[in-house]
């Protein structure tokens, strides 16, 4: 902090207190260091912490000061791109953060200036020395003198004359020296670096002395000249020794140089040099991290994030990180440490904590830890650390030591000789541990730690030594069996290998048995690991002598596996705990990004596959000889593997929630969910391989004699099926969640499709929906494996069809909206089929889809088209009717193209129902061409009425003048309506028959019809209710033609059987005397038109557009 430094004799009355940093003496801390072992915190940050850290890093880049260091990145855009990659930030989120940081208040810019010392300055006193002190400050808003002749003239009292007194700082006075040492630090604030300059003036303090005192200090003639010179100047006036003027924008973030003292005249051009250190720092940073956390903690988290990214990038490129940071990372960390004014010691400590934590989870050379160890040791002063920092550093030492010992304990597998650099890696690890344990910091913070040599010796316990002995014996026996034994066997028929094996196996058995007995029970994890290596070595030894001869007798190693039975629980627990830790670490490091275009799962799924493969490898190594115990061990392996699978599902879902928390980009969250689903699908494939990896078939053959039939299959397969069912449920849940996210958009676009204005064509109306689906489905196809994508398509198709059905039900009366929905359904079917790459036709054509397709086909049709469809359905009904419960009519009909006449001979009716009270009927037949809009000018015709006749013989002929084109259309038919004439009331309906016109002779071929066959048509009744076409027409309230048609058909239905509520007016069925182009009983056309007009007066709402019913 700043202190007031006064001159011994006097000081300017208004000279401001200097903001100054003094070095404090280091005192031993009074509070003891906690001795308990502290687990190092995880280097993973929560989403909230990562957001704050990202804000801090961006703020550092945007408020950069000074010239760049050599090999540092100059462009801010390149640094921001690197931060975006290192923090895995989406472009939209990056832009929002960038704008947010730009809106924050700028920091207070400061120059931290340290006046170290000077050398070779002028001696201004009669003694040949000076009493130097310095005045320094920052001049704002004025250019700095340059080297050109026209540059601003140097001023002798530049600080006093140009910088306000309250902004001027002063060092101590060093008496009688030409090489003063100050080592004082000042904090100088400035606003704009582009027009700010640093000024330092060095002065010789001149005190008032008598001539006698000065003569006493006289040493030579130069001193005498100084006495005469001082006699000419004012008493107490200080002498100018030189100055240093620098532009701030020319300085780097950190400077440490000797600067020449510039003269005000050329009398003494060489005035010595001044050693200055500069650092451009910030005060009052506006970021949330700077306001709420210590600078050291923020820098540690930033270092961990960037180093983790660097290591991951190297691993992705299949290279090992060598400890050197990229220029971008080095630049950002340097800027942050400088701006936050972090000491070199705290930077070294942050580097040690970050590297030591990451070394235990990521793979990089241990030699990267040596530099921070050396830096901490060189600068170690315990008193500068807070209590929590001491605890954190002690925990890092203990954690790395424990991790290093675990690697040493397994050094034969961790550093196998088959890998060329294994000895170098082991040597590097030992060197790091040795250097760490030699540190003063380690000795003070971990005083109770045993010597490293003792810890390593305990790690390399006797059991492990026995394992090494056995492996050496195995190697020698290999050589004996394949080399030496052949020589002795061929020459002397001596089996050297058997002799050597029998001798050595007794030695090995005794030593191993003694060790296993000494271990006892329970077995610790560390000892259990060593015992497992010993067990594997013994198995390999026994396999060399796989077929002992009878003369060998009982071998000492027979049944050796029983010696290791107490260690089995430890082995199984160790296998599970190691696998669980690896799964947790893999998930925590997973950024839920696909590995590539073809590999759509993430890194944790790969690590999990490797983890399960390692479990299977352990099971194969164990290969327990006892069948029943081997079965129980396999059950445990399967149980642990299935449990790990379900744990992984929970962890990966939690990881997705963690990464997507606070994500405003829904696409990023959906992408992560896709990766999660793919990871689970990959896990299901891996789990499905367990029977093969654990050799269930071979195990089943071994345990057949000791287990009940089917017990193994039932137990193991039940475990496996339970795990697969759980994974299937998790996958379906994930796919269901993805589908729900898309279903909202689909429903929204379908509603927009229905509500679009009428002027928009159906093709343009469905375009937004199709674009939405194209983008989303392409995205999902890219990010999901095929199985999950097909499941997603099925869910989306079901939902889409349901939404369309609901929309269609609400738009029954709107042909235009229904037409759009119909076209949308057709395009969606094509979209989801995707030329055979999507859903299969049987998956698309569900019952709901087929019903919707039929409904939309009807709803999209015009009223006239619906009327045609109605008659098509009645024609179909007529063709399917085989019984004559209502009676039948017999006709002969043909078309003469030359005359454009339709000739109908109505021959007879038979088996009619008696509708009168006398048990008979008075039948007649009405003939009309339907639909009426196709034959608007043709009136209905009627036969003569027959009294009390249920089998009338009409034998009447009718001709209709009509062109062939409307007769060939679908639905065109001759409607034969058989009625019972009532004198006092309305006529009753006996039944009706429909004769399709398109199949009549004369219309089906170019030739004129010859002999026309008779056609017998059973009579039918119209359905009173439930006809969908009539219901649809009835819903079109604004369509008069539809309403008239429905009303007439309903009246016809009501007239069939029993007293009708509404019947057709009798005038419509009155016999006509002639008309049209025919003879017979037809009346003139004028009379027919008169009768139709009478019908219109009776039913005024039943005619529209010139069409009469």
UniProtKB/TrEMBL annotation:
This is Unc-13 homolog D. Transmembrane segments: none annotated. One of its GO terms (molecular function) is small GTPase binding. The gene is UNC13D. Residues 90-237, 885-1010 form the C2 domain. GO terms for cellular component: cytosol; exocytic vesicle; late endosome; lysosome; recycling endosome; Weibel-Palade body. It is found in: Cytoplasm; Late endosome; Recycling endosome. Pfam families: C2, MUN. Residues 27-45 have a biased composition (Basic and acidic residues). Residues 763-870 form the MHD2 domain. Keywords: Cytoplasm, Endosome, Exocytosis. Residues 22-45 are annotated as: Disordered. Belongs to the unc-13 family. Residues 532-652 form the MHD1 domain. GO terms for biological process: defense response to virus; germinal center formation; granuloma formation; natural killer cell degranulation; phagocytosis; positive regulation of regulated secretory pathway; positive regulation of substrate adhesion-dependent cell spreading; regulation of mast cell degranulation.
